[in-house]
Write a structure and sequence with these properties.
20 helices, three-stranded antiparallel beta sheet
Length: 481
C-alpha cells in the first residue's frame, strides 16, 4: 500500500512511497503541502504500477514517450559517450558526431519524432547542394560528392539505429532509407603506379632532400618501399618499431598492433626476402623501442605529390635539347599526380599498386584478400585491384569468334584428365576401366556439341528451333513442355 511522509529536513512537501511494477520500492516528492492531496497522488502511483504489472499500460511506449520529449542534443551527447566507450578512435567519433549534427541542423529537428525519412532525405540534398563550405566563393563550389552524402547518411542511420536499440523510439525511422550509388560520381579515383614510375621515383627520392622535408630522402624511400611491399597504410607505418620486424627466418614478417590496424586486430604481414634484406641493413643502430617513421608528416599525400612533381621535372629536364622528346614527355602521364583520365597517385595509391600487383600475379583470390587484409574479396578486387592493359589483351587473345573451339579444347582436356585418373584406378578396379572410359568420352562429346550449338543459336537469329531440341536433357529438368 502506498504511504506518504514528510521530511522536515528537505522542506514542507509530502513524499509518496510505493512499489512499482517490477517490485522495486520507489520514492517521489508530490510537490504539495496538503496531506490529503499527497495521499491521492500516492494512490495514483500505486494504481499505475498495478496497471503496468497487468499489461494495461505498455511500459515500452511509456518509456519512448518520455525519451521523445527530451531534446535531440541530449541523445546526441549520450550517443557520443557510447561511441567513445566502444574504443573508437577520436577522429571517428568526431566525424560521426559532426555528420549527425549537420543533418539535424538541416532537418530543423528538435526531437526524435522530427527525424523522419523524408526530412533526412531533404537534409542530405541540401548538404549536397551546399558543397564544400571551406571554399569561400559560392561560384567556385561544386556540389558535394555522393560519397560525402553517404557518409552523412551512414552516420545519422547509425544514430537512429542506436536510438531503436536503446528503446528510445518505437522503431528506427531511417531503416528503409537507401544510400546513393557512389560509382556514378567518383571524385577521388586512385591509380596504380607503373613499374617504370616506381623505379625512377625511388632512385630520385633517395638523393632528394630539402629543408621542407621532415624525413631525409633515404628514409622516405624506405617508407615508400615498405608501403609498396606490404600495402600498409600511413598510420600503420608510423606505428612500426624495430621490434615489429621478424627478418631472421625463412619467412620474414612484420607485425602491426591491433591498436593501429584498421580492422582492429593484430596483423602479421609476410614480406619478400629482398625487402627483408634491405630493412635488416637499414634498421641496424636504430633504437629498438622507438618508431622508425615517427618523422613522417601527417599529410603523406602531399609528401608523395611533391616528390612526384620534382621527379617529373627532373625526368623532363633529362630530355635535354631534343624538342620532340621534351614535348612527348610533357604530354605523357609519367610521374603525374593526376593523369589525363583524372586518376590520382597519392600515398594511398601505393596500397592500390600493391593489391594490383598481387591480382596480376595470378595468385588465388583468397590469398590476395588475406594479403590485402580485407574482409571481403569484393573490396579487394572491386576497389583496389586495377586491370592492366596487357592482362586485358591477354584475356581477349584467348577468345575465338564463337567460343566453340576453345570450349572443345577445354572439354578434351577435362576428358583427358578424367581418363588419366581412371587409368590409375584401373590398376585396382580391373575391367571397369574400359566401360567408364567410354562413358566419359560420350559425356565430354555431348557437352562440347551442346555448348557449340547453344553459341550458334545465340549468334544466329534465323535459328527458330526450340531450346528443348537443342538440349536433350531439357525434358528431364523440365517435365512440362
Amino acid at each position: 500500500m502506498a504511504t506518504v511522509y514528510r521530511d522536515e529536513s528537505k522542506g514542507r512537501y509530502w513524499y509518496a512511497m510505493w512499489y512499482d511494477h517490477t517490485g522495486k520500492r520507489r520514492k517521489k516528492c508530490t510537490l504539495t503541502t496538503d496531506k490529503s492531496a499527497a495521499d491521492r497522488i500516492a494512490t495514483k502511483y500505486e494504481a499505475d504500477a498495478a496497471l503496468r504489472r497487468d499489461g494495461v499500460i505498455d511500459t515500452t511506449q511509456e518509456r519512448t514517450a518520455v525519451e521523445n520529449r527530451r531534446p535531440l542534443a541530449e541523445h546526441v551527447a549520450d550517443y557520443k559517450a557510447e561511441l567513445e566507450s566502444r574504443q573508437n578512435s577520436a577522429k571517428h567519433v568526431s566525424m560521426t558526431i559532426k555528420h549527425i549534427e549537420t543533418v539535424i541542423v538541416h532537418c530543423g529537428a528538435e526531437t526524435i519524432a522530427d527525424l523522419t525519412s523524408a526530412a533526412v532525405r531533404r537534409a542530405i540534398h541540401a548538404i549536397r547542394q551546399a558543397g564544400n563550405l571551406r571554399i569561400k566563393r559560392k561560384g567556385d563550389r561544386k556540389p558535394s560528392s555522393l560519397r560525402t552524402c553517404n557518409a552523412h547518411l551512414v552516420s545519422i542511420k547509425s544514430f537512429t539505429a542506436w536510438l531503436d536499440d536503446q528503446e528510445r523510439c518505437q522503431r528506427d525511422p531511417l531503416r528503409g532509407l537507401k544510400g546513393f550509388n557512389e560509382a556514378t560520381d567518383r571524385r577521388h579515383v586512385r591509380r596504380e603506379l607503373t613499374a617504370a614510375e616506381l623505379d625512377y621515383l625511388l632512385r630520385f627520392v633517395e638523393s632528394y632532400t630539402t629543408d621542407n622535408h621532415n624525413m631525409a630522402g633515404a628514409d622516405r624511400v624506405m617508407a615508400y618501399r615498405l608501403a609498396l611491399g606490404t600495402g600498409f597504410r600511413a598510420k600503420e607505418l608510423r606505428s612500426l618499431i624495430p621490434a615489429s620486424f621478424d627478418l631472421g627466418g625463412e619467412s620474414p614478417t612484420i607485425k602491426v598492433a591491433a591498436a593501429y590496424s584498421k580492422r582492429r586486430r593484430d596483423d602479421t604481414q609476410p614480406i619478400r626476402a629482398d625487402l627483408a634484406a634491405m630493412f635488416k641493413a637499414w634498421l641496424v643502430g636504430k633504437p629498438r623501442g622507438e618508431r622508425i617513421f615517427a618523422a613522417m608528416p601527417g599529410d603523406t599525400a602531399r609528401m608523395l605529390r611533391t616528390d612526384l612533381e620534382h621527379a617529373r621535372q627532373q625526368w623532363i629536364k633529362e630530355a635535354g635539347d631534343n624538342a620532340a622528346e621534351r614535348l612527348a614527355r610533357e604530354q605523357s602521364d609519367f610521374l603525374c599526380y593526376r593523369n589525363h583520365a583524372g586518376e590520382i597517385a597519392d600515398f594511398h595509391a601505393t596500397r592500390h599498386t600493391f593489391v594490383s600487383a598481387l591480382a596480376g600475379s595470378g595468385a588465388p583470390v583468397k590469398t590476395v584478400q588475406e594479403l590485402a587484409r580485407h574482409s571481403t574479396p569484393t573490396l579487394t578486387f572491386g576497389r583496389y585491384a586495377h586491370a592492366r592493359s596487357a592482362d586485358v589483351a591477354g584475356a581477349l587473345d584467348a577468345l575465338t569468334t564463337n567460343g566453340c573451339k576453345d570450349r572443345q579444347l577445354s572439354g578434351e582436356r577435362v576428358g583427358e584428365q578424367l581418363r588419366g585418373e581412371m587409368v590409375r584406378d584401373g590398376a585396382i578396379n580391373g575391367g571397369e576401366n574400359s566401360l567408364l572410359k567410354s562413358v566419359v568420352d560420350a559425356a565430354v562429346l555431348t557437352e562440347v556439341e551442346l555448348d557449340c550449338e547453344v553459341m550458334r543459336r545465340i549468334t544466329d537469329p534465323d535459328d527458330k528451333r526450340r531450346w528443348s531440341e537443342l538440349n536433350r536433357r531439357w525434358r528431364i529438368c523440365n517435365p512440362l513442355p
